[in-house]
Structures
1.
Amino acid sequence: MIFNSISFIIFLIIVVLVYWRLPKTARLWLITLSSLLFYGFWKPEYTLLLIFAAVLDYFIANGIDRLEDPVKRKRLLIISLVLNLGILFYFKYLVFFKDNFETVLNSFGNNVRLLPYLKIILPIGISFYTFETISYTVDVYRKHIKPEKNFISYLSFLVFFPHLIAGPVLRASDILPQFNVKRKFEWSHIIEGFRRIMTGLFLKVVLADNISPLVDQGFAIEADKLSALDIWTLSFLFGFQIYFDFCAYSSIAIGAARMMGIRFLENFNFPYMAVSPKAFWKRWHISLSNWIKDYVYLPLTGKKVSYDQQYSISEIRNSSSFKGYAALFLTWALMGFWHGANWTFIVWGIYHAVLVTIHRGISGFTKGISKPLLNISGWCLSLPFLMLGWIPFRVTDLSTVKAYFFKIFYPSQYSWLGMRENVYVVTSLIMLFCILAYLVDKYVVPSIENTIVGQFANVIQMTFVVAMVIVFLRPISQFIYFQF
Amino acid sequence: MRRIKHPSILLNVFLPIIVAIIFLYTYQRNKRNAEEIGLGESTFIYTPYVNNYPIHINNISLADSMKRGWELNGSKLLSLWFGNSQVHGINQYKDGQQNCIQFCYDYLQPANKTILGISYPNANLQEILLSVLFFTNKFPQAKTIIVPVFYDDMREDGIRNDLKSDEMRKFFSLSPWKQFYENIPSIASLAHIDSAQKNGDMKALHETAQEASEKFLDSCLYKYWSLWTKRSAIRANIFNDLYILRNTSLGIKANTIRKMIPGRFKDNYNAFLNLVAYGKSANLHILIYIPPLRNDVTPPFNMEEYEAFKQTVEHDATLAGAKFLMLENLVPPRYWGAKPSTSMGKGQEIDFMHFQQEGHRMIGDTISKTLLNSE
């Protein structure tokens, strides 16, 4: 079921109403059954895959916990990883490897067509729930958490519908304790949830869905008919579209969970206000960045993982060594590959690794510069390059990436425009809107929060948001992150 | 400032919903239909019918009905006239007036000839090429096609949803005329668009179990909530209000010069070249004309580019064996009109595209005389 639909709104109202009338155990059953129904609204047969993932890691995690022998514990962990990643590989990456293998074979003059009838439908959310179930088993293996004894509790964590399709990537240690206490109903849950859901729907159906045609039309133009200014504009515009789209999903997920008294961690924090590439990844898809750091980057650096550390994936100080840089680039390539089975996503990942490395190099020379100046110059320098990074993310082949990137280095490509004037106007206005929203959130909201003025402003804002959602709510497009 | 300890559900949830609904009812009450917004209040969309069958359409779903009417009328020697809103829009319209297609239709009747019109607002030449290919195959008896080449429509791009119907996509996947649109990406891609990609309010749910529940709920809301039925008109009005706001804040007026967009120009001009080449290979008479333009004020074009454009069109049309008419100065200034300002305020702006009935009579007369003389 997709969030930007009337079906979801009706579904959520029914689930929330029933949820608060049930005892604790029955609530877990309700969450489980309603979540499977939610997932089954897409393709019912794929719920079995989801249940299999839950059963597998429930038993393996409990098995690991019962064993003392490190070798046997590791063996069980490896079984979990192989099965989970194997399923992910089959559904998401098999066709990619098949195609590349074919290309290599055919480059030697063969005419090979491997598995010509292979057609695989990617189960939505598989990348997200696979990561969640892997992190659970790894945490049990690392003795960071005790395994859940109640299967329904574990199943309800994994399939909990708000985060099931596109995150945030949750940790069992954050959610299971919340499931295992009986929460009392408070109106504040509903108010907060309503605000988050409406804000999310506004971002999706009013902003992202209306930017989408401009982005699609822009990227449909052949590269030779676009100027360098168009490339920059399109990268910004797609950057806004994907931000509004994904932030919307996270906001609705957080709001829906909140209505049931469950608190998710924030997934976005004004990412385009980041003053460096490193800071960007502390503000963008925060749950995935942390996951990658804890389960990929730190193990690759050879550092022992400690759960009270607050490292981010680009922050390890010993990483000036070859091993550190290798870990950084490999992590980012994997991060890109997680997003999609295409070389363009790998390029996107490596591009960010390069940005982080350059930032590290530059930051050594910035001592003595005042912080406000550093922040402003950091923002001005980082934002265009962060936005430019969306080009390989959006286009579908490397030759187009190359054509787009080359354009921006030719001065002659800055003298004309290849799109309608509206595209540039809209892009500029959204940038201004983002800056304004950030400044209001940082400087105005804290001073008026929970005051009469704040309340009044809130009613005005929500009235506008609700009115726009009523007018624009249509399931015309899925959330971009569904495809990952 | 006094702090509020417990936010109220009434104030935070119910009040915004109620006020939002009241606001939307009030907003839509004074607004126009989506169809009327594009042309402005002063111009009326007129598509004539004869014996209850259309002789001029701006929606492809009426193509079969138009064909039926032509057959019932004796399948006379046929010309097809394509174009944009200049063909179907009558400025300062009064009841009983008619447009150029109907004038031309009436003039041709005694000669046992007839004409049918197909026009879309802001139609670009890619869409015109697509329509020409489609309609000349739907009406294989058509002998002549008439196509105006509008300079400002060279800025337009893409194919409207109406022209992406299943019938159209099927035609373009099988069409033997591929060579005439292979180099036009927007048309070439039509054959590869599946139903899920077609525009529609529920395209994200295509072939999912949710599609049925969503359609049911949507139909219930349509049935029982009047505001729900007006949502598309409200959306159109919101975009129109934003357009007016943009024009006001950036000082954009009807006569503000619009720059040509190189990529779009190239695709549209390729479509034009393919169109005349197709006409030649299909043994069709082609009549290309530069449409009337108000000549007492400077148009919103770069005049140097516009002059070069006209010469190129004439050269390429003639080279391909098409008949070329320069109708730029055909309609005198008094037959043109104004439209409500597209900026805030109550003023009027010059309408460079649509003229009054007399203008339609003049162009209908010119085209019909050309058709009568050419065969």
2.
Amino acid sequence: MKSPIRLERRLEQPKWLNWAVPFISLVAALVLGAIVLWLTGKNPFDVYQRIFERGFAGKQAFSGALEMATPLAFTGLCAAVAFRMGLINIGGEGQFYVGAIGAAWVGIAVSGTPTGITIALMCLAGMVFGSIYAAIVGVLRAKFNTNEIITSLMMNYLAGILLNYLIFNSKSYWRDPDSPQFPKSKNIADRADWNTYKIFGIEMPIAFLIATLAGVAIWFLYKRTRFGFEVSVIADSPKAARYAGIRTSSTIVIVLALSGALAGLGGAADVGNFRGLLDAKGIQMAGYGYTGIVVAALARRNPITTIFVAIFIGGLTKAGYSLQGPDFPSGLVGTLQGLILFTAVAGEILIKYRLRANVSRAGAVAA
Amino acid sequence: MNSNIFIIIISSAIFYGTPLFYAALGGILTERSGVLNLGVEGTMLIGGVSGAWACLHIGGSAWFTVTMSILVGALAGGLVSTLLAFLCITLKTNQTVAGLAITIFAGTVGLSSYFANIWKVAKTPVPRPIRNMDVLGLADTPVVGPILFRQTSLTYVSWLLAILATVYLFRTRIGLQLRAVGESPQTADAMGISVIRYRYIHTILGGALAGIGGVFYSLAIVPTWVDGMTKGAGWIAIALVIFGFWRPSLTLFGAYLFGALQSLSSTLKARGVDISGDILDALPFIMTIVVLVLVSSRFAHRRLGAPAALGIPYEREER
């Protein structure tokens, strides 16, 4: 059994591949998605055209894409930050929930504080809650070498149970006592509502700007500081890092806490900028944390690219929600996202290896 | 006597533990070959939805329909893992990310939900669920009746599989070679064992078993398809492989322990025991974390027999 192609390790990785490969991955995912659609009796062109119209074309559609992109930018950064160090934090989902819980707490409690300060306080609460929640995973990983993938995932389920408990199964501080029949959380105070700006007719949530700033800050942290350098050394070779005297354990905890803080910030934005309350069911349905992994993978862990990819995936997701109906089955957008993740993962191969035909050595085909 | 709460807890632990065991047994075979499959959750869901579809569309006697549904679920699970095998073994991608991709692609809001939607299997109870049997008419025997003689056919098959898998892994030549592939692929390759073939076969086999675990959810536990119905069972199964030290027999007991935790909330509620359901629902997840912490120190890992080459793509040295 000889495969027709063989992989040959690249000695140098050309720069242009860094943007070409995600693009190729995306096209490949759309082609695969078209095959799935075609096999299940749908017209792929028709479906894609409607996704494009609903997700990106026009000011209203683009505003929707930005709204959906905001939480995804935060969870994407959350995944990217940990990924940079070779840690796989799939707990963004749960960290997002607890961030939302913390921010909603502040949002409900404040009265009379100016909006700017309230936003800052809600962000802070979201970050603190998210980072503590993620730091638990980090401590377990650093102290006991416990697989962070499974623990962070288990923590997602626990956070979901906590949300349900606070809103549906208890008389917690968050729960609205005036609505016993339809359990929901209290609304946040009027002044805790975050701003949305209108720029050239496009609605720009302030949280999206915060996400962009966070992306730039992370880029700076990882590219221009000693800490970032240490993280990349650990990512490349934990052994070398230890010999160089880098404190690997505490770096693991810090990176995961940072990662969780970003997801928690996303949760705060969800409460303050979009829903105005702690929507226990809504944020669990949305699955921003999981989609954030797709965003980070497609962005190849680059924090600035993450913001742009979030807009793309955001538009796709938004279109999926608004088109959902009898001839646009649910699950389609999730399937497409999964395919994008596949091709993004497979695309890494093109960066690391050169594909060569196995038949004759002379007739090599460069990828 | 048989309505004694402990007997109910034990018998439902076995019932709820059965799909966990199928998925974990699949995980053992896959991981023994050195491939880490984090796509179990998604694979189970695809198996579950395909099994439900088959159950709705394949006619014939009850036995035939159920057997075919299980086979269809296994086939679907096998197909999904073929994709994983291609990514991890042929393309040598990062196994954790590839597995995650499977779970997102096939998972709760992905392909399994898409299939459920276009095949219209959601919210329709399956016509022929997997029922608990009455073996040799002994189901009403005090104490052992409900525990040993009133389980599902898949449970009995799983006991057989546990024995077969143990013999296969530790008493046959192929099993020995499989372990060699997982421990030291270079050595195995030098001995003339095809690392690629062993890894492909056991990854696909593992996926098929996970698919059967998924069918158990849609045909026995609920028995109606619900999007995302495995609710993390696939992930618990991955932890169970570690908990069972990569051995089928220990994993079987682990699966029943977690089965007990999963069934506890409904069992106690049915008994009118006043206890917060949320805490009980959280138990399996908390326990998974605790178990992982206990067994995952570097020291324990080496002693407990984690395949040494687990998660590392095999690359033949360049000439």
3.
Amino acid sequence: MPKSFLHNMRHAGVISALVMAPCLAINAGLASAETIQAQLLKAPKAPPPITRTQPATVVVNLEASEWVGLISDDNRYEFWGINGIVPAPMIRVMVGDTVEVNFKNKSDSKQSHNLDFGKATDGAALVSAEPGKEAKISFKATKQGLFVYQPSTAAPYSIQHLLSGMYGLILVEPVGGLKPAQQEYYVMQSEFYMKDGKKNDTLPFSIDKVKEMDASYIVHNGHMTALVKVPLRCKVGETTRWFYGNAGVNFESSWHVIGEMLDRVWPAGDMSKAPLESIQSTLVGTGEATIGEFKGEMPGTFVSVDHSLFRTEKGALGLLKIDGPTNAELFKGL
Amino acid sequence: MPINFSRCVRTAGLVGAFIMTPYLGIHAGVVSAETIKAQLAFAPNVPPPIKRTEPATVLVNLTADEWTGPLSDDNNYEFWGFNKHTPGPMIRVMVGDTVEIRMKNNKDSKESHNIDFHAITGPGGGASLLNSEPGQESGGRFKMIIPGIFMYHCATASPSIPEHVANGMYGTIVVEPAGGLKPVDKEYQITQSEFYTKEGAAKGETLEFSYEAGLDERPSHVVYNGHATSMVKTPLKAKAGETVRIFFTNVGPNFVDSFQLLEQPFDRVYTEGSLTAPPAENVKVTKVPTGGAVMVEFKVNKAGTYTLVDPVGNRKDLGAMSLLKVD
């Protein structure tokens, strides 16, 4: 950039600075717009932090499919999801990036599927494909924050699409990125509504239960015990950063970590604003996401929950195991 | 401390000051952290503001009890709670304090009980150390490193964690920031909570807990300070021109609360109970997560009756209301 700038200035001659300014900006933009492939990982893994400082074109390959899988140890459900996982992979870009989504609907799908990235840009950014077809959308990530991407709520049967596992988070980082944190986790709360049945049954979706707000399961990361069987891990002294989304569609989540305090919370993931500090429980609306951080102070097992506690009986919890030396000044039995 | 210090100096004899210094330091540290007994207060009252400027060791004695008492004008309920009150007593300390908690479970209890303090950093918020079988006592010592308004509650897994909360086992601990809170004219606490009871009970019957109603999030009562009408029948009081501060905890165990004063906005809202971030100003409604809290302040200029309420759905009719009478 310094070189181009000087080069341009030399050739500028009598052209006034007023005319030059926009050209310089365009040149800088074009020269650095590299194309990179998004790293798409299964929750609770978040994609690695962005280290580049210039906007890029980020290619995101997403495939919609339908499969029967376990929602709990007792029951199965016909999931509709992205890349075979629930929640869908988290996408991580920065302000100014162009996001190119290649959206494929698997050939054995029964449904047409779509995704809307409108929250991360200016206006709707909808991509839709019939079974066996592909579609493409490109949008500029203009808004900083952490957003839920999901099927368009305008499409028919949208509620069943949304409630069957088609959602994920997209993080639009500020230019310059986020401060480093030793651990980053991706957790999404979501509700499942099914007709009643016996153990080992595959339970069908129930629109009546959605309307009555009578959730069968409210889970963290797509299975009733996903984060209980395989806890998150960190060490004493490490800063943990949580990308916490709430797919909804009915319940606001009162996110709390038992035995820890959220040192910093950025509601809606907007890190351009000052964070809330020292928070016991923070509200994450339906269709919203938040960024929370805290330092692990004590070893042990900690429980991340929706503090609407009856929901923990339906799966709204996960474990964090912190390893390291104890601190008797902080926490000691008598 | 003077005695210890003198004894140290007397017995020190020829030991040089060089060697003594660290020992004196340790003694001074242990002795100077004053040990005091917590002043506990039951809702809607609060313990007095903290005047001291140095951290102390604060002793807190809590009991876990099970008793039958009024939940509304019509019915009793078998409460589980701390110090025979729902909500349990408010505890008020400052950041840097070490809180020494002893929790005695009444010998007549049927259940084992524990306490998860949202103000405690460590496994279970202390629940792993503060678990007592009926007739037993447990204890722990915890340093308060983060200021704020925090809920504490029982989190025993048997029969289920939400059942212990739904039966009334909760309270509030305020950890004042360094330098304390700005003085105001009146301070009160309100705790909002839901009760889930079996349908069909007649007037005068003792209501029974319903786990199914809890799972369905269909409460029979949503109350302020443990009773459906107590805060309406016995309003809070203030004088015109006074500034009122309310420590508000939303226990849930299910509902997010939309806390508001019907007659005027709150002047200052310490969102989600954070006392270190600047407050939001001139706020009409503040949402309080379950297991969360908020501190609000407002000046009442005119005489009259003011209404603090969660107006969502029929919660007001179920009891989520308090009056404030201003003379």
4.
Amino acid sequence: MIELHAVIIFVSYAAFLVAVFSGLAFLVQERRLKRKDPRVLSTAMIPLELLDRINLVSVVVGFSLFTLGMFHAAFLARREWGSYFTTDPKELASLLTWAAYAAVLGLRWKLGLRGRRVVMVSVVSFGLVLFTFIGVEYWFGGKHVFF
Amino acid sequence: MEISVLGLNHRTAPVELRERLAFQDQRLPEALESVRREIGVPECVILSTCNRVELYTLLPERNGQKSKLTDFLSRFHDIEPRLLSDHTYWHLQPDSVRHLFRVTAGLDSMVVGESEILGQVRDAYAKAVSHGTVGGVFHRLFQTALRAGKDVRSRTRVGQGAVSVSSVAVDLSRRIFRTFSSKTILILGAGQMAEATITCLKGQGVRSILVANRTPEAAVPLAQAVGGQVVPFTELDAALIQADIIIGSTAADHYLLTRLQVQQAMGLRRQRPLFLIDISVPRNLDPQIGQLENVYLYDIDDLQGIASSNLQMRLNETESCAQIIEQQMDGFLSRVAGHGELVEP
């Protein structure tokens, strides 16, 4: 069951990484278009509309899997450690990450935002993914010993 | 035997003369036959486009062929020979071969590097083949020219980059939008100025076109020409919500769209990207509109600037194009001359 947990979380991280790549490509292209940089036409690029779409879809996929992974983890925690939530540093960091991507989707769906700013939030949020994935053990230790 | 070319093009002759000298498709067999029979050349190809008319012939001897060919042109098109002499050029080997290779590669075109000419040369060659005026030398000549033309295009950047305002606008819109079939163009103004850009965008698949003008009746001809629908200026705000691409091309001396108007529309259109093209002078669209998120505004100078830097880039490539052409030409001449069919280069 622990393996399944790791797989789900891993795939969600991969989806968030796709959001980073599409987001960075969006930001570069958007900036060139705005600044009327001639390079916007000299390099082959995917249209902004599609990059924005890829960014949104990958955040939705990543967020759904991450949510699923967290629920799954809560049941595992109850079985292993006796409680759904144990204030382990990794659990707290995961909550933060979850909230960041929930905010990305909230900005898009509730506030109707699109384009540069919301894409930027999706890119920056990946910092929390890295922190949850690697940083937590490095700085805080905790019960998650698999990675 | 020697390859020659007699011709005139957009640089040497005005359009009034070029259009009188153009060979219509239905008269081409007759023309090819006359050149072969009357002037006594074994091989002949006629290249006739809106920018040039050229007679490529394989001369059995050098004497007097130029005047015979000029006479043929004037007789065939019923034009006085003296009108022609100032506007034609005459090349013999190796310049005639070099000329054909340059023409085929698009280096001699009005818009350097354009690709249409390659197809036109292929077409002229195919027609001459079907009328039996191409033999061993011209088969090799035209096939090498077509290969050189393709080579130049693939090995250099001479054919790259949009060089007209409307094609730059289309290229930019393809960096913004994924599909065009669901997009709407809104044109401000009833003038014909925007027509080229609209035609290019329709080529990308845009189906819905709105034309807004102060006096709606005046917008009807343009709307009909581009297959669009007239909207009154009073309904501009509603049209802003619908439109994805806006083209400003009126003669108005003030801004027809303000930043605030577009800002409000952007909220209502849920921030769907908006591309604005201002091809009018003075400008119709407030430049501040371009500062809004998901809004991209280009005026005529921006588009022209990109077009001319692309043209400059193409011109910078002509040196390396010429090298490729010289190589192919040398190869051709030594191959064919080696067979004893041509004079030594």
